[in-house]
Write a structure and sequence with these properties.
Blueprint (H helix, E strand, L loop, with lengths): L2 H10 L2 E7 L5 E4 L2 E4 L5 H10 L3 H8 L4 E6 L5 E9 L2 E8 L7 H4 L3 H7 L4 E6 L6 H13 L5 E6 L12 E6 L7 H8 L6 E4 L5 H12 L3 E6 L4 H10 L6 H11 E11 L6 E9 L2 H9 L5 H7 L8 H10 L5 H7 L3 H11 L3
Parallel strand pairs: 7-11, 7-12, 8-9, 8-10, 10-11
Antiparallel strand pairs: 1-2, 1-6, 2-3, 4-5, 5-6, 12-13
């Protein structure tokens, strides 16, 4: 079996990740859970990992550094790879990126996500833990724009996950390490490249946050991601990443520009057939903007809950809705909720207790 056949076999099983480790069993992640895959001896695993690296990358690895990169199979399927050492032995994690961009309907995303994608300006953030489907949601939004508007889209990604075939839009996708050295310089350049829409892979630091907000202020639609689990935590992360001397200015600017925050988790279905996206959705209404400006984030969840007419939804409400339809179990709802006491009341009420 070739390494390409090995990866294709994992894809056929519906895996999202492969973990190769010298001295340990090879495992894959399917529907969020790890399971054994293949029966590779240590020599084969070692050779497989080294075969992915260029001579230069092998030198960097031997100097004690980890390696991040991506590679394509002959059918165009893309993988994101991190190679590292543990206990003095080689290991790598391979994320199997999707080659097909699903639609809003296939992802069962609520209509408000399409409305957000159709905005002309502002800042939209999709947040959640690693593997929660952030990139897939963003790809559906960008692909909808691609097929409905003659606009210029620039994406800055690490690495490129989905490749877009230009339809009505003109799309330039830039990958860190290959097309540009860092997000900040690429984002500065993007502002001089006549964009309508800018996708920033992740808002990692103050300068990236500052430039993303500036881009929104100057009339662009900016989309980005953060590894946060709620709208309130996202706002805290944005502000805390900035120097104390400019935090209030950033808070006010962010409040003025935020169009929406989508915080999501992939939760297992009750029948074991896969996972569903549970979404908390915050829209940048006047009430929400005022709470952000005044730092009253403790009131944000109740404002989101009261904003269902605008398309807003708390994570607890999303989980309770799935539970009422018997799509997820009681235990799953409790595992992913943001307030266990309120969640328990909602779930018991849903079943008439």
């Amino acid at each position: 079996m070739t390494f390409e056949e090995f990866v294709l076999g994992a894809r056929e099983k519906g895996a999202s990740d492969i973990h190769l480790t010298v001295g340990a069993p090879t495992v894959i992640r399917v529907n969020g859970l790890l399971e054994p895959y293949g029966d590779l001896d240590d020599l084969t695993v070692n050779r497989a990992i080294l075969s992915l690296l260029t001579p230069e990358q092998q030198r960097v690895l031997s100097d004690g550094h980890d390696i991040d990169f991506s590679f394509e199979l002959s059918n165009g399927a893309r993988q994101r790879v991190n190679v590292f050492r543990q206990n003095g032995k080689l290991a790598c994690s391979i994320r199997l990126l999707n080659t097909y961009i699903p639609s809003f309907e296939e992802l069962k995303l609520p209509p408000i996500i399409k409305k957000l994608a159709e905005k002309k300006r502002g800042l939209i953030l999709v947040t959640g833990p690693t593997g929660s489907g952030k990139s897939t949601t963003l790809s559906a939004m960008l692909d909808h724009i691609n097929h409905t508007k003659a606009v210029h889209i620039i994406s800055i990604e690490d690495p490129i996950e989905y490749r877009y075939e230009p339809a009505l839009a003109t799309i330039h996708q830039r990958e860190l390490g290959r097309d540009t050295q860092d997000i900040v310089s690429a984002l500065r350049s993007a502002l001089r490249e006549d964009p309508d829409i800018i996708l920033v892979g992740e808002l990692r630091d103050f300068e990236t946050i500052r430039l993303a907000i500036l881009a929104a202020e100057t009339g662009h639609l900016v989309l980005g991601t953060l590894h946060t689990s709620s709208a309130a935590l996202t706002i805290d992360r944005i502000v805390d990443a900035c120097p104390e001397s400019v935090q209030e200015q950033i808070r006010a600017s962010f409040a003025n520009q935020v169009a929406g925050i989508i915080s999501q988790n992939l939760v297992p279905k009750a029948d074991g057939s896969g996972r569903l996206a549970a979404l908390e959705i915050m829209i940048g209404t006047d009430a929400v903007r005022n709470l952000i400006k005044t730092g009253k984030l403790a009131q944000l969840e109740s404002t989101i809950q009261a904003g269902s007419r605008e398309g807003m939804c708390t994570m607890n409400d999303a989980l309770a809705r799935y539970y009422r339809r018997d799509l997820i179990t009681y235990e799953t709802a409790m595992d992913y909720c943001t307030d266990r006491e309120e969640m328990e009341k909602a779930l018991n009420a849903a079943k008439g207790f």
